[in-house]
Amino acid sequence: MERPLISELCRHAAELIAVGGGMRRVRLRSGDMVVELERPEAAGVAAPAPAPVPDAPAERDDLRHVCAPMVGTFYRAPEPGAAPFVRIGDSVEKGQQIGVLEAMKLMNPIEADTSGRLIDILVSDGTPVEYGQKLFAVAPLATQ
């Protein structure tokens, strides 16, 4: 089930290198998955020493995660082409719908379980998810 995510990470990494203006190496991380791509040197051109790749930032202890209540397909918007329920940086209220999980042709609302600021959306739109998988990271109001 992780194939769509790895494919998407590879595509994004290749796009970054293609338009990176001299960027030769890119590393993308989503959860436990890491994709690293490096463009080969052009013949006869000395490449600068590669910059060290920093480790992924430590996960913040103050974040709350909204997790998938069941197995299904995650959607950020109520229907194709519609605006997403929330974007990174938005304030959310406890009980506010922030996504949809389709399971057995039923659309199940995903609601914020705490009030705060949306820090990250951890799953791509249209991705199959497992029960308990982290979908959103929210910084509760008290820790912003």
Automatic annotation (TrEMBL):
Pathway: Lipid metabolism; fatty acid biosynthesis
GO molecular function per UniProt: acetyl-CoA carboxylase activity
GO cellular component: a single term: acetyl-CoA carboxylase complex
PROSITE patterns named among the record's database cross-references: BIOTIN, BIOTINYL_LIPOYL
Swiss-Prot/TrEMBL keywords: Biotin, Fatty acid biosynthesis, Fatty acid metabolism, Lipid biosynthesis, Lipid metabolism
Source domain of life: Bacteria
Domain Lipoyl-binding: 63-139
InterPro entries: AcCoA_biotinCC, Biotin_BS, Biotin_Carboxyl_Carrier/Decarb, Biotin_lipoyl, Single_hybrid_motif
GO BP: fatty acid biosynthetic process
Keyword Ligase carried by entry: no
Protein purpose: This protein is a component of the acetyl coenzyme A carboxylase complex; first, biotin carboxylase catalyzes the carboxylation of the carrier protein and then the transcarboxylase transfers the carboxyl group to form malonyl-CoA.
NCBIfam families: BCCP
The protein's name in its UniProt record: Biotin carboxyl carrier protein of acetyl-CoA carboxylase
Species name: Nonomuraea endophytica
